[in-house]
Specification:
Nucleotidyltransferase, domain 5; 3 domains; single chain; five-stranded mixed beta sheet; alpha/beta; elongated
Length: 289
Amino acid sequence: METFQAIKEYADEYEEVSISHLCHILKVSRSGYYKWLQHQETTSEQENLGLMDIIKKLHSQHNGILGYRRMTLFVNRKLETNYNKKRIRRLMHILGLRSIIRRAKGYCTKTSFVNVEDNILNRNFTATAPNQKWCTDVTFLKYGFSCKAYLSAIKDLYDGSIVAYVVGQFNDNELVLETLRKAQKANPNATPLIHSDRGSQYTSKDYYRLTTQYQMTRSMSRVGKCIDNAPIESFFGHFKTECYDLKKYKTFEELVSDIDAYIYFYNHQRFQERNNGLAPLEMRNKAVA
């Protein structure tokens, strides 16, 4: 279709060029071109053209992060329709649109073996209500000329929302403790099971004391088993693929601004199949309504 459209546009602009010559150059049949030219678009084809226009706009608006599954959610939310994933995938294929693919990173956090807890969570990543189970971790970022930054975040396993996060320039205990304080302030009655890896911040006495004060149950991944903390690792993977890896950051303030914007998007606008097409905070608000 696009080849025939290109032939028509070129022939309209340069009338001296023959259709036969253009078809020969682009390796399509002359009869096929005239059949396409005389074809009347069906209602379904017109609908697909409108859908493709919306898909292109959403793809551009969200920096190419939407795969066909999430694109289907966005399209249906925008149009209040119920298009199936196969149709959206086919139209994205016609448009040549693909989402950015996350790739696995081969590293895990080493342990200092101080105040180590059992793996109580045991990869049971489901919860029946908000604030039952939280996962937390810290990820490493860069800006400027090899300057370091760190993002500490806590994720609720009920709805997938980020309940608290802190961006700092030092990967120290205070970074993690401040994240805990923000989470507790936002959810003052919460006493969740909180799962982490065995990094030095989480095995520290300060972390032990604060989680005990907040009446939280500590759980920790086994040594070398990054999958034990998969939900928060998944969030960091999405953040880096859909935001952080798309540009180079010159300043700490620029990095923080984009993190703020992405986490707002993640909590309020990133619709998820696991939440029946709702964004994390939509799911959370529905549960407490």
